[in-house]
Design goal:
Structural class: alpha+beta
CATH class of the largest domain: Alpha Beta
CATH topology of the largest domain: Heat Shock Protein 90
Oligomer: single chain
Largest sheet: 5 strands, antiparallel
CATH architecture of the largest domain: 2-Layer Sandwich
Helix content: 40-55%
Radius of gyration: 53 Å
Strand content: 15-25%
Number of domains: 2
Shape: rod-shaped
Length: about 500
């Protein structure tokens, strides 16, 4: 039943219940204190009256009634309180009794009464009221003095009635006020509920208004929910972008694979039908398309393995070895092209690299997989030769910069526009769409370069501008620093 109640109702019931318990306890404490105070005063009067009666009984006087009569003076009784006095014989029978100070009411039940050391409560004969009673031992039996508790009981009952009525009214008023207060206090939770419903309906941009104080529970909850919603929106956007990239990748891969397959299939049919044009070597064409298809499949497989953290065979090496081989590759690809081996270029005031004033090649120790880095350098060199006019100078720079091993491939070609530089590392992207796939490639080389360098824990920096050439810089951690970190991790 309680579990099906709303939070507002449960909070209100708990608050009202605690308030009722507090009022009940407070009323009981106050009423108990009042009753003890009144009974204490009644006991003091009772003891004074009992002492006076016992003295009169035990010390006969000529001017007083005979020893068979218990005398209680009226001035010992409180106004409005009925005082009862009696003498009991040895057999417990009442021999004399008297009511003073108030109306004659049913007296106390004296059956089985014995002497008392302190006042006690005794019910009346008919059970309608109670008496405070003291019993002293006399020469012939007991001398009993009692005062009615009617006034005390009526006062305590009146106090209880007033407390109960006041508590009922107070609970009703506070429950009504609490209903509105709890409703206002839970208003931020209702806003959170509406925001959650909007998000569930697909509005990922909805956020919880942070109207409560930053140090309150609702304020902290709102901030935590908004932070979670920000991460969720970012994650959903990243997933959507990833799915879009995957669709583009599959479409581009299918398109790139279909081109060499179409060439192989076409020349195979022509060869089978004997319709190959004169002077065309169909088998050579099929072989070239097969090689191209094989390279494309190898590149795709390599990118897939890099996405799954390709295992590397790391070992200390010097990037100068790769730089020297890269210089030979440039001469092999284009013997007429000027090429030089230098140190790393320096940054200009505008943040660009400059090849002027560079020093000689310097040591660049790194902890790397040499075979994979050779693939990186081969792709960069091939990219520089393939995308620049014949005779364009190429510079290979190697050395250490800011504690990192650096290898760069720079050319003095036409350079790239900013929008081209932003997309140059994307898969299947070609800056010059007019180039054929045979000369321009499938657009996977630079994507492989960035993935391989990232697998080494390094980065690829691109510096380019239209008419100012292009410089690709590979930055890796130095071998000594890498070895120290590996030793610490071990």
């Amino acid at each position: 039943m309680i579990a099906r109640m709303s939070l507002r109702t449960r909070v209100l019931l708990i608050a009202v219940g605690l308030l009722a318990a507090g009022l009940a306890i407070g009323s009981a404490v106050v009423t108990g204190a009042l009753e003890r105070n009144l009974v204490g005063k009644l006991d003091a009067q009772l003891e004074a009256t009992a002492r006076a009666g016992a003295q009169i009984y035990q010390v006969p006087d000529a001017g007083l009634p005979g020893p068979g009569t218990v005398v209680v003076r009226d001035n010992f009784a409180l106004p409005g309180s009925t005082t009862y006095s009696a003498r009991l014989g040895a057999d417990g029978a009442v021999t004399d009794e008297e009511w003073t100070g108030g109306p004659r009411v049913p007296g106390p039940d004296l059956a089985g009464l014995t002497a008392t050391a302190a006042p006690v409560d005794v019910p009346s004969h008919d059970g309608t009221q109670h008496w405070r009673l003291l019993a002293h031992s006399g020469p012939d039996g007991l001398v009993v003095t009692a005062i009615s508790r009617a006034e005390v009981d009526d006062t305590v009952a009146g106090m209880l009635a007033i407390s109960a009525g006041t508590a009922a009214v107070l609970l009703a008023v506070l429950a009504l006020a609490g209903w509105f207060a709890v409703r206002a206090g839970l208003r931020p939770l209702r806003r959170i509920e509406r925001t959650s419903a909007a998000i569930a309906a697909g509005d990922l941009a909805s956020r919880v208004p942070e109207s409560a104080g930053p140090e309150t529970e609702v304020g902290r909850l709102s901030r935590a929910l908004n932070a979670m919603l920000d991460r969720n929106e970012t994650a959903f956007a990243a997933r959507a972008e990833s799915e879009a990239r995957m669709r583009r990748f599959v479409a581009d891969a299918g398109h790139e694979l279909r081109t060499p397959l179409a060439g192989i299939k076409g020349f195979s049919k022509l060869h089978r039908m004997g319709a190959v044009p004169a002077g065309v070597d169909a088998m050579a064409r099929i072989e070239r398309e097969s090689d191209r298809l094989e390279r494309l499949v190898d590149d795709l497989l390599l990118l897939a393995r890099l996405d799954e953290r390709l295992p590397l065979q790391l070992a200390p090496m010097d990037l100068r070895t790769l730089a020297a081989d890269a210089l030979h590759d440039v001469h092999a690809l284009d013997p007429s092209r000027p090429a030089q081996l230098t140190g790393p270029a320096q940054l200009t005031g505008s943040g660009r690299l400059t090849g002027s004033g560079v020093g000689p090649p310097a040591a660049a120790p790194a902890l790397a997989d040499e075979e994979r880095l050779r693939q990186v350098v081969t792709n960069l060199v091939g990219n520089a030769v393939r995308h620049t006019p014949e005779g364009t100078p190429v510079r290979i720079g190697v050395g250490s910069v800011d504690g990192c091993a650096v290898l760069e491939v720079a050319d003095q070609g036409p350079g790239l526009a900013p929008e081209q530089a932003e997309r140059v590392f994307q898969r299947f992207y070609r800056a010059d769409e007019s180039r054929s796939r045979a000369s321009g490639g499938a657009g996977l080389g630079l994507a492989i370069v960035r993935s391989l360098v990232a697998a080494h824990g390094g980065r690829v920096e691109l510096t380019t501008a239209p008419g100012e050439g292009t410089c690709f810089r590979v930055v890796l951690g130095r071998a000594d620093a890498e070895l120290a970190r590996a030793a610490d991790a071990g």
